[in-house]
Design a protein that fits this description.
CATH topology: Cytochrome C3
Shape: globular
Structural class: mainly alpha
CATH class: Alpha Beta
Radius of gyration: 20 Å
Oligomer: single chain
CATH superfamily: Cytochrome C3
Distance between the termini: 45 Å
Strand content: 5-15%
Length: 135
């Protein structure tokens, strides 16, 4: 009887751990969806922000930026990060269009590091699954 109770308790603990991990993992995923892309051919990217920021230790300024008149990146984490506030559908002066900015930043880093998603279907899966992580 005590053995059955111990086994059931162990299973309950494992289930609780798995559920809490999956809830955490779901909160970690951000959908990078912007209203300027009205005629999408593929779904928006599901982006694991915490993986990049915390686990891989990527500096926030590698992705987030607001440049002052001298060209210095003065973004800080108290600011809202809406990429399409500056990056529009079409190029605007020195600012590259949003799609090119996303692809240059994300794919460029993944290619440079030799890991992560780089093809259309890896980042924009036609099903609502998280992209395959190869970090």
């Amino acid at each position: 009887m005590k053995k059955n109770l111990a086994v059931c308790s162990g299973i309950a603990v494992l289930v609780a751990i798995c559920v809490s991990m999956s809830v955490y993992a779901q909160d970690d995923m951000m959908t990078l969806e912007h209203d300027i892309f009205v005629d999408r051919q593929r779904p928006a990217v599901l982006f694991p922000h915490m993986l990049h920021a915390d686990e891989l230790g990527i500096d926030c300024l590698d992705c987030h930026h607001v440049y002052d008149a001298t060209g210095e990146n003065v973004w800080d984490d108290s600011e809202e990060s809406d990429c399409t506030a500056c990056h529009k559908l079409e190029a605007d002066g020195k600012t590259m269009p949003a799609m090119k900015a996303f692809h240059t930043n994300c794919q460029g880093c993944h290619k440079e590091e030799g890991k992560g998603s780089v093809t259309c279907g890896e980042c924009h899966p036609r099903t609502k699954q998280a992209p395959k992580e190869t970090h």
